[in-house]
Amino acid sequence: MKRSTVEYGGRIALHFGAISRFDFGPDMTATAQYRIVHSTSYQYSEPVALCQNQLRMRPRTQPHLTCHDCEVQIDPQPLAIDTHPDYFGNIVDSFSIEALHQSLTVNVRSHVTVFAPEAENLLEAPAWETLVRDVQAGATPADWNAREFTFGSTRIRQSSQFADYARQCLSPGATVTEGVNALTRKIHQDFRYDTTATNVNTSTSDAFELKAGVCQDFAHVQIACLRSIGLPARYVSGYLRTYPPPGKPRLVGCDESHAWISVYAGSQIGWVDFDPTNAVRTGTDHIPICHGRDYDDISPMRGIVLGGGTTTLRVSVDVAPIETTVDPPVATPVVAPVE
């Protein structure tokens, strides 16, 4: 009987194109509400005797996002689902199916509100060298907590090559947000978006040499650059709202999982997200779900199966906007402590 691992994740994103300093993507609204349906289906050529899986698809209330509700449906239905936070605070659904089955379907339905981040305070960010010293010294509890995102991880290793590339944008005395914004745009300019150039197992070093890949590669490269000069940076997974061509209807199920980066900008500002694939600071088109050191910490679904033969995987994501508002919201979002 075959024992195998199963994993998939965000490998596709669309391009918005380069933009000006501290601008967001095309959606400039103050808030946006979405209903999200993330469907995953496995078909097996032979019966599976046992499968054990973990899901990281539930949104959680965090800065700039409120999760109103979320429902997870699994078929065949497991006897129990253990829902718990992981080390980084992401919500994990763990389950096992111990009866013979030749298909597995997971549907996660969520209702969220995304709040546009404020841009005004970014100009008050510290110089990046000052922030590096504060983080290394643990000058504040927030600085100390951010320090763990300066080290290497399974998929990301620091190197002088990454540091040299980062310093082309983070010149001496530049604020951390100005420098990271410039690096975001440089990666977008220097790298080719190519779904055939890499795969889910391509190393960050190889993607950097190729100067090509998808959102996962772009995010890993930028994180490697920032950590190589001592700045805390983490990997963010989520969804990206896409737009149909002019005059065409929105196609259900054609949105995508996406990945971007979050950089620590000091205890007064906290974490700020940038999308190197699209050369933007994230706005209400970006819906964050999980964060970690790299992709290995936040894979949407992973597990093991006994048996199964040949596996066919189908994934669809639908991000349906409910409403947006131009005026600031009456109620402010629930803000989690800076981690």
Protein described:
By secondary structure, this protein is α+β, with helices and mostly antiparallel strands. The protein has two domains: 3-8 and 35-114 and 301-324, Immunoglobulin-like (Sandwich); 119-297, Roll (C8orf32 fold), CATH 3.10.620. The chain is 18% helix and 38% strand. It has six helices and 15 strands. It has helices spanning 128-137, 141-146, 160-167, 176-190, 204-210, 215-228, and strands at residues 3-8, 31-58, 65-75, 81-85, 91-97, 101-115, 192-193, 212-213, 233-240, 256-264, 271-275, 280-281, 286-292, 301-307, 311-325. The strands form three sheets. Strands 1, 2, 3, 4, 5, 6, 14 and 15 form an eight-stranded antiparallel beta sheet that branches. Strands 12-11-10-9-13 form a five-stranded antiparallel beta sheet, covered by helices on one side. Strands 7-8 form a two-stranded parallel sheet. Helix 4 packs across helix 6 and helix 5 packs across helix 6 (215-228). The protein is globular.
Number of strands: 15
Which CATH top level class of the largest domain fits? Alpha Beta
At the third CATH level, what is the topology name of the largest domain?
C8orf32 fold
Cα separation of the termini: 44 Å
In percent, how much strand structure appears in the residues? 35-45%
| Alpha-carbon Rg, integer | 20 Å
Mean pLDDT: 87
Largest sheet, described in full? 8 strands, antiparallel
The secondary-structure element order is EEEEEEHHHHEHEHEEEEEEE
Structural class of the secondary structure composition?
alpha+beta
Which blocks of ≥5 consecutive residues have pLDDT under 50?
1-6, 8-22, 24-28, 326-339
Shape: globular
How helical, in percent, are the residues? Answer: 10-25%
Number of helical segments? 6
Q: How many separate domains?
A: 2
